[in-house]
Amino acid sequence: MNWNRFPMPYRRYVIGPVWRNESGANRLRQFTQCDFDTVGSTSPIIDAEIVAINYTILSRLGFKDVYQIKVNDRRLLDSFMSYLKIADRNQINSILRAWDKLEKNRSVHHQKRTKSRRCRSEPYRRFDRLTDKLSSLTDLTNDLVVTGLRRYFKSPLITKEIDRLESLTNAVRSMGVPDERFNLYPLLARGLDYYTGPILKLP
Predict the structure, then answer these.
(1) For residues 190 and 201, what is the distance between their CA atoms, to the nearest angstrom?
(2) How far is CA 128 from the centre of its chain?
């Protein structure tokens, strides 16, 4: 109601009790949530601040060497969907949810894929090859992730999003966050439609 009264970008934070009602996930519970948000800017600096805030909070709470903040970008994922020639939103969401679960079920996924690879159509094989490429980058340093993405993908659309992710990485570093505490993770998806830019995941 009062958006025109505030300078932009507008930053706010709040801590308090909230309710989560996710009928599809069978959740209805109260919990305490800390929110900090910024609106009114598309600069990667704003997104880097979110990583830096998380790093500062966790460090001051004493979690100095036991976590990594995972970072990806929905626009990079969308460019991968274009690479796969997939436009159906339900299919896209299924792929993103599968990628999100892959970290916990990598060996099971590999076994199932190997058994069924011969009977799969070309779209599935393209998906498998893309998943293999992205999986090979998940345990590397941030610089090597960027280098690997550039080596694997020459599409101008994907290259544009790699550039964006690299700019975010440099901005995070400029705020004093060491590489050991954040990790570019190209399979991080958080398969929710309301993600449109950077995606973060705490431990």
Answers:
(1) 9
(2) 20
Closest to 150 (Cα-Cα) out of 132, 163, 136, 167: 163
Q: Could you give the 3-state DSSP secondary structure of residue 172?
A: helix
Report in angstroms the alpha-carbon separations of 43 from 62, 162, 164, 198.
Answer: 30, 16, 10, 12
Length in residues, the chain:
203
- Distance from CA of residue 47 to its chain's centroid? 12
Per run of 10 residues, the mean pLDDT along the chain (length 203 residues) is 84 89 68 89 91 93 88 94 86 84 61 46 79 92 97 94 96 96 91 79 81
Task: List the domain range (segments joined by +) for residue 152.
Answer: 3-201
Number of domains the chain is built from: 1
d(CA 137, CA 150): 11
DSSP secondary-structure letter at 150?
A: H
3-class DSSP state of 190: coil
- Indicate yes or no: pTM above 0.70: yes
CA–CA gap between residue 19 and residue 22 (Å, rounded): 10
- 45 token code pair: 């600096």
CATH number of the domain residue 27 falls in = 3.30.930.10
